[in-house]
Amino acid sequence: MAAGGGAPADSWMRTPSWAVRIRGADGEIAGAGILLTPDRVLTCAHVVDRTADRMTAEFVGAADRSVPAVPARLDGDAYVPETRDADGDPSGDVALLRLERPRPAEDPVRLRKLSTSTREVRMYGFPYEHNGGIWFRATAVGGCGRDGQVQLVPASPGELASPGCSGAGVADSDTGEVIGMVLSGQEDRHGNRFTFMSPADTIVGHLPRLESVTTGLSGLDPRLRSTSDDVVPGLLDEPFAQRLAAWLSDDGSRVKISVVRHGDAARESTLRRAITLADRESRPPVSVDRAFLDPPGTVPSVGGHDLAVHASGRTSARIAERIAERMGLWQRPEDPPLDRVRAAKGTLNLVVVGVDEAVDPPAVLDLLAVLRAGGSRLLLVFRTDGDCCHRARDQLLVRPARERRARLVDRLREITGPLARELHERLSAVVPQDARSFGRELDRELVAAHAALADLRRADDPDRERDPEGDRHGHGHGPGADPDRYERLADRVAGRLATSLAELDRLRDRRDELTGRLRSYQVLLQHRLQGEEDPAVDDLYLRAHALLSARPCDVREAEAAVDAYTHRVDGYGDDRGQGGYDDHPGRDGYGDHPGHGGYGDQRGGGA
User: Fold this and answer.
1) Which residue in 307, 304, 189, 184 sits closest to 248, CA to CA?
2) N or C, fewer C-beta in 10 Å, the chain?
3) What is the pTM of this model?
4) If we measure between CA atoms, which residue out of 337, 461, 477, 465 comes closest to residue 389?
5) How far is C-alpha 409 from the geometric centre of its chain's CA atoms?
6) pLDDT tens-digit profile of 329-368?
7) Cβ proximity of 57 and 41 under 8 Å
8) Strand pairing of 214-215 and 111-112?
9) Alpha-carbon distance 140 to 453, whole Å?
10) C-alpha distances out from residue 244 to 239, 364, 386, 408, Å
11) How many Å apart are CA 485 and CA 247, to the nearest integer?
12) What are phi and psi of 225, to 5 degrees?
């Protein structure tokens, strides 16, 4: 068995020995599987459903390249079919097969419990077009649904897991560890393509017997697991439960700080309950039933946290090591865990209880600040509202919120100042193609940006960070100032300004190009006329020149006028009788302008 639980990261060119192709009684490929022990294969329940009573497991990565085929059958009651609730939300869909003949001891792989946030992964499946097996690449973008399934976004449109991939192993691209199993791939009516996987924690939750072939620590500290004592009536602090569930269901806040004092049985019970319900492995099956009689808004999403640790009596180094282990940061064990966490590419939804009871609370706060700066979300629980809690509020909430507002203010100033002036400068030079809607939409967006800027300037008040219940939320804004919304506004306005400026620059470049073209054709005409005058062609020139000189310039109208002039010049041969030239003025449709023989001193100017 692979020691670390997967193929090393440099083995992607090889077919993994643990990859299994499963055929049904009809000989057709029903799906894929993962060899977990010499005689056990993990796959999807719906793959087993398609194989009737006879299944064959084929090992395409066998060392001798022989693709051995081994009869297989369902391993007793190790079968959890997919079920769906009233909203169509799926759960389950895992099964275990037993082989009639075991495979070599070095072929199986262990599952690994790892956080799944923002992780690059690969899957080895057997789609119809590549039934010998092929790797698919994707990015894990977060949990979804009541079973803690993880959504995978294909690295390219052609890498959506298709029929033949169900049951395939999902391997972490950095470590090679197999961290889950493909469930399905689908394309919605809007053309969006997704793959879904069941992570190792969820699989073990459905089939506890697989704990023996799974490495990695649980995402939930045993001291934080809810017990039967927590379901006693009266031990649910409903408002607190709703706030916890909101954060664990990703309400948009980055940091939440709460105080749960020793002896507050209701609040302690409510905290353990929320953390346990959000854990993929520990969440009780009854909690996903629609008949579960919990108060509204108090049940968090499964997978709401990647890791929940109890800091009491632990050093910051030990906590950092636990975080690094959960994130799969063991490639450089000689580096301190804090350095590995600081260099990590991924993020974490982290719960830390008893921050102020750690051996070295200030160092723990420094660790948490590193995680926050890297994009992780933090739910922090203190035992007292003392100095450590106050420092956390300043270090992790007030200061970052103030710095965030300052960055946003600077950005909005740039948008409403220099960028807006650049826009008006361009608009004074050229007319956009859809001038009416162009100006109206941008003016509305710039007015909104000005309002947001004024709102943010009023919001720089740290006293507004505290909510009425004494918790701190990570929004980092006072009443009326919403940085999340204003950042989206800034992104939208900046993007629209960039697009508009590019369009106007293109029109201005086209105007300059047309000006040069008009001049060159005028020189050509003078050469051909050799001092003679032609009022008709002069009228065309004057019209084109006037349109190009106007500010703002309507480039489309000017282009039509220049085209009319150059067309007449091109048709004007060296011999006036040979070019098919009609020298009756007024027939060109541009009116009766007085003729001029030469205007080499007239030039288009302006912006």
Assistant:
1) 304
2) C
3) 0.76
4) 465
5) 25
6) 876 777 888 888 888 888 899 999 999 999 999 999 999 9
7) yes
8) parallel
9) 35
10) 9, 22, 21, 28
11) 18
12) -75, 135
Helix 483-529 and helix 555-570, axial crossing angle in degrees, nearest 10: 20
As a whole number of angstroms, the distance between CA 37 and CA 16 comes to 14
Say how far apart CA 267 and CA 260 lie, in whole Å. Answer: 6
The pair of structure tokens assigned to 293 is: 């009689």
Task: At 80, list the tokens.
Answer: 């959890």
Burial 117-148 (b: 16+ CB within 10 A, else e): bbbebbbbbbbeeebebbbbebebeebbbbbb
Helices (H), 255-353: 265-277, 316-327, 337-342
Residues 6 or more apart in contact with residue 577 via CB below 8 angstroms: none
Q: Tell me, what DSSP letter sits at residue 102? A: P
DSSP annotation of 107: S
Side-chain half-sphere of 602: how many Cα atoms within 13 Å? 17
**Element of type H or E holding 493:** helix 483-529
Q: Which residue has the tokens 């085929």?
A: 69
Q: State the Cα–Cα distance between residues 139 and 154, nearest whole angstrom.
A: 7
Residue 154 pairs in a beta bridge with 138
Query: Which residue, among 182, 139, 119, 143, has the nearest Cα to 301 in the 3D structure?
Result: 143
For residue 469, list its beta bridge partners: none
Nearest 10 degrees: Cα torsion 497, 500, 505, 511:
-150
Q: Are 430 and 553 in contact (CB under 8 A)?
A: yes
Residues in the chain: 607
**How distant, in Å, are the alpha carbons of 335, 581, 582 from that of 578?**
86, 8, 11
SS3 content of the chain, % helix, strand, coil (to 5): 40, 20, 40
Helices in 461-482 by DSSP H: which ranges? none
| Residue ranges in the chain whose pLDDT is less than 70 | 1-12, 50-52, 86-87, 129, 145, 185-188, 191-193, 233, 285-293, 331, 460-481, 573-607
- CA 604 to CA 430: how far, in whole Å? 13
> Which residue pairs from 186-194 have beta carbons closer than 8 angstroms and sit at least 24 positions apart in sequence?
187/160, 193/154, 193/157, 193/160, 194/151, 194/152, 194/153, 194/154, 194/160
Cα separation values, 509 from 24, 38, 429, 481, 513, Å? 65, 69, 11, 41, 6
**pLDDT given for residue 531 in this prediction:** 73
**Residue whose C-alpha is closest to residue 554's, from 431, 439, 453, 387:** 431
Burial class (CB in 10 A: 0-12, 13-18, 19+), 13: exposed
Q: Which residues contact 575 (CB under 8 A, 6 or more apart)?
A: none
- What digits encode the pLDDT tens for the residues 169-226? 999 988 889 999 999 766 667 766 678 899 999 999 999 999 999 999 999 999 999 8
Question: d(Cα 251, Cα 323) in Å, to the nearest integer?
Answer: 23
Continuous segment of H or E residues that includes residue 507: helix 483-529
Q: Single out the residue of 115, 111, 81, 114 nearest to residue 95, CA to CA.
A: 81
CA distances from 411 to 406, 417, 453, 487 (A): 9, 10, 9, 9
User: Does a cis peptide bond (omega within 30 degrees of 0) precede residue 552?
Assistant: yes
Q: Are strands 349-353 and 307-310 parallel, antiparallel or unpaired?
A: parallel
